[in-house]
Amino acid sequence: HAADNPYERGPAPTEAGIEALRGPYAVSETSVSSLAASGFGGGTIYYPTSTADGTFGAIAISPGYTARESSIAWLGPRLASQGFVVFTIDTNSVYDQPASRGRQLLAALDHLTERSPVRSRVDSDRLAVMGHSMGGGGSLEAAKSRPSLKAAIPLTPWNLDKTWPELRTPTLIVGAERDSIAPVSSHAEPFYNTLPSSLDRAYLELNNATHFAPNVSNTTIAKYSVSWLKRFVDDDTRYEQFLCPLPRPDLDIEEYRGNCPHGS
Ligand code: 9J3
Ligand code: ZN
Questions:
Q1: Does 90 qualify as catalytic in the annotation?
Q2: The CATH homologous superfamily of the domain defined by 15-258
Q3: Ligand with smallest separation from the Cα of 95
Q4: pLDDT tens digit string along 52-79?
Q5: Of 81, 98, 187, 256, which is least surrounded by CB within 10 A?
Q6: What ipTM goes with this model?
Q7: 211 noted as active-site residue
Q8: Contact 183, 162 (CB under 8 A)
Q9: Catalytic residue of the set 116, 133, 225, 227
């Protein structure tokens, strides 16, 4: 319980709870204009309204090529309501490449912890990155350059760099079976396969899904993202039950690979 883990937030988890459209925390939001943002394009911060539970871990999320913050906005309240501060960002240009998106994710985290109005609510030692497509490729870049990150979740990621042995951040890679823009055979799967085998890592392939599955509310993405973030940003082992033993293929999951148990 909380006495053993100071980062644990919220009630004992259930499968229905991690699949729900909203978690236990009421959520507020505040926008960051592009003028106020340095090194990224601005965005929206979603955060638990109550200050009664102390600080929260935080996640920055980048959209993909040609896309705006709106394309990943559903993740803001969905994750924040589980007990995280979530920053969905715009990039400087919608044409920015993955390496740039990685730097922008880190700039957004720095803004969140150093300059944002909710900085006192954020635990600056417990940060994570996510992103769609080139933003997913960017989350790999961010984790490579900042190994203190606690979790990375690239969603149908795209990157020309196919090898990621440098990562030290627990990483959940989400691929889509019918992705023809970032086919899993040349993106998500080699990214996963080249992560260190000693790392806490997982590969979730969404059954019968396209490149754009992460752009609309998706319960499979949400439930495993919440579990991964809770497990590695909050060190909350109550969520290990949803990650180990490895989820079995079903109507939603084409394939799931990973090490198990975690943290060993
Ligand atoms: O961010 C993305 O959707 C990357 C896929 C893409 O359009 O790459 C083409 C260069
Ligand atoms: Zn590489």
A1: no
A2: Alpha/Beta hydrolase fold, catalytic domain (3.40.50.1820)
A3: 1
A4: 999 999 999 999 999 999 999 999 999 9
A5: 256
A6: 0.88
A7: yes
A8: no
A9: 133
